[in-house]
Amino acid sequence: MLDDFFSRAIIAGVGLAVVTGPLGCFVIWRRMAYFGDTMAHSALLGVALAFLFEFNLMVGVFIVAGLVSIALLLLERRRALSTDALLGILSHSALALGLVMVAFMTWIRIDLMGFLFGDILAVSRLDIAFIYGGGAIVLAGIAWLWRPLLAATVNAELAEAEGLHPERSRFVFMLLMALVIAIAMKIVGILLITSLMIIPAATARRFAVTPEGMAVMASVAGATAVVAGLFGSLELDTPSGPSIVVAALVLFVLTLLPFGRRDGQAAEERGQ
Amino acid sequence: MHKPLSGRDRPIVTMAGAGVARNGRWLVRGIDLDIRRGEIVTLIGPNGSGKSTTAKLAIGVLRPDEGDVERSSSLRIGYVPQKLSIDWTLPLSVERLMTLTGPQPREAVVEALEAVGIPHLARAEVQHLSGGEFQRALMARAIVRKPDLLVLDEPVQGVDFGGEVALYELIGRIREETGCAVLLISHDLHVVMAGTDTVLCLNGHVCCRGTPQTVAQSPEYLQLFGARAADALAFYRHHHDHTHMPDGRVRHADGTVTDHCHSGDGHHHDHASHMAHGEAGDPQSPEGGGHA
Q: Who among A29, A157, A266 is closest to B61 (CB)?
């Protein structure tokens, strides 16, 4: 089964989607979408550094994304600029630095498009091992941090007062995000990684009644989008990464259609 | 006035000369405060006087920039923050909110929701609650933890007057039943409860302190809030000089029990202001303002 590039692509994509689901829920609950983008954009700098110093690409991306989150935490403490502006600076300067460095390294031919938009059809068995190994670490981390993260999402001071160390869990969460971006880069590419976190989670919101349920549904929605997108790209001969994102978008739009439970209906039920 | 039992007189929170500075400005400074088990401490003061900051110092959300804050080890805190908004993207029922910071047995959750009077809302999403209902849910969440110290930052905002009285009675009852300490923040003077042991009036520093009565008559307090505020407090004190018991009889401050209120009893809707003036002008307090 692993011999077929298409099967490998599906296995890799589904594995990734299962991980991005719960992570993506926190990203939208905590309004960190732009932060996810910033980390993802910094990945290209990680790629460039990995080529320069000749080490594993995923390791390079993880290190740079981790450094970006530490930089953000430190800059936030100075309170000189809003988080929004800081993210804008970090995001685009990291992307630009990466592009400039790649241009300098004339001795290496880098498939820039492959990194920006991903190439899921080229995943190797080793990549699958990385995705499932890294994914297991991320899921275990999320499960371990679930309560403090959720409490801090509701109110950081409340979590702190009741002994849950929200700062620590926030930092670990950022590292987990860096790890996911490192393993996801090859699947959907730097520019589309955040969409695989946000869109399935947003899709799950409509049907979820508990945070835990929303995390599971986001994983299912993401996996569905991967399978649908890959078959679509095979059928229509479209690029695989963007096709997966388009499939996720279609799922999301379907949930906006007025069937089943309407918005505000719960409030009406309660009022009766 | 409820007095803490002498056997457990060791403070669970001790603040000595504690202060917090931000951007070169002191938010609060020189706070000395002991909180003991079974004690209700109320912080009052105008907006921006450092009430919330003081409470956050006491529970360790903020660290003091000068002075010391000590808490007894393994102190279990239940906290109701002043502002709390839950993003609509987070699907959170009242039931799930109850176990936000730690697992709780089902019966305890039901019990806490019943205590605050919203057992019917267990499955409602928190975003659909009214301000008063949400405030009750937050209170239930704090008490379900069986805290040693219950910290309530303006817990009755958005609650109507009847509900307000009920919530303050609940706070008093929780203290009686569990023996926990309560740190209460209020800018509403008339709700400074008869059950409060100590009132700290803040204005960037401890302006005055003591029992509700002594604080209301201290010159610092009158300067800060004006004489009308003293009226409000006196009226409140008067309002609570008798208790309507469940069987319909009335217990008076002197311990006697009658079938009806005395004609002179202060029901706030009748002759409150008249009674309040009479009380405020009464030089009956030999203790004076016990300010720091």
A: A157
Structure tokens at B108: 């305890």
Selecting from B84, B87, B93 the residue whose C-beta is nearest the C-beta of A210 gives B93
DSSP secondary structure letter of residue A262? P
Backbone dihedral angles phi then psi of residue A264, each to the nearest 5 degrees: 85, -10
A:B CB pairs within 8 Å: 74
d(CA B11, CA B75): 11
Mind listing the pLDDT tens digit for each residue in A152-167? 999 999 999 998 989 8
* Residue B229 pLDDT grade (very low, low, confident, very high; cuts 50, 70, 90): low
User: What ipTM did this prediction achieve?
Assistant: 0.82
- Which residues in chain B are closer than 8 Å to A31, comparing Cβ atoms? 87
Report residue A253 CA to chain centroid gap: 20
The whole-model pTM stands at 0.79
Distance CA B59, CA B45 (A): 19
**A-chain residues within 8 Å CB-CB of B102?**
147, 162
- Among the listed residues A73, A62, A10, the one whose alpha carbon sits nearest the alpha carbon of residue A39: A62
To the nearest whole angstrom, how far is the Cα of A167 from the nearest Cα of chain B? Answer: 11
Query: pLDDT digits over B34-68, tens only?
Result: 999 989 999 988 888 888 999 999 999 999 999 99
Residue range B229-252: average pLDDT? 52
Which amino acid belongs to residue A143?
A
The token pair that represents A244 in the structure block: 């997966």
Identify the closest residue of chain B to A203 by CA–CA distance.
B89
pLDDT for residue B30 is more than 70: yes
Contact status, residue A128 vs residue A12, Cβ threshold 8 Å: yes
Inter-chain CB proximity B79 and A210 less than 8 Å: no
Q: How many CB atoms lie under 10 A from the CB of residue B232? A: 22
Which chain B residue shows the shortest CA-CA distance from A213? B91
> CA A229 from chain center: how many Å?
17
pLDDT band at B15 (very low <50, low <70, confident <90, very high): very high
For residue A166, the chain B residue with the least C-alpha distance is B61
Instruction: Classify B29 as helix, strand or coil.
Output: strand
A206 CB-near residues (< 8 Å, 6+ apart): A255, A256, A261
Q: Give me the residue from A151, A162, A208 closest to B77, CB to CB.
A: A162
Q: Which is higher by pLDDT, A21 or B173?
A: A21
CA distance A38 to A95: 9
* Token pair 């303006």 in the structure block, residue: B154
Q: Tell me, what's the pLDDT at B292?
A: 32
- Give the per-residue pLDDT at B58: 92
Q: What is the CA radius of gyration of chain A?
A: 19
pLDDT of residue A269: 46
B231 pLDDT higher than 80: no
Using CA atoms, how far apart are residues A162 and B150, in angstroms rounded to an integer? 11
Q: State the nearest Cα–Cα gap between A159 and chain B, in angstroms.
A: 7
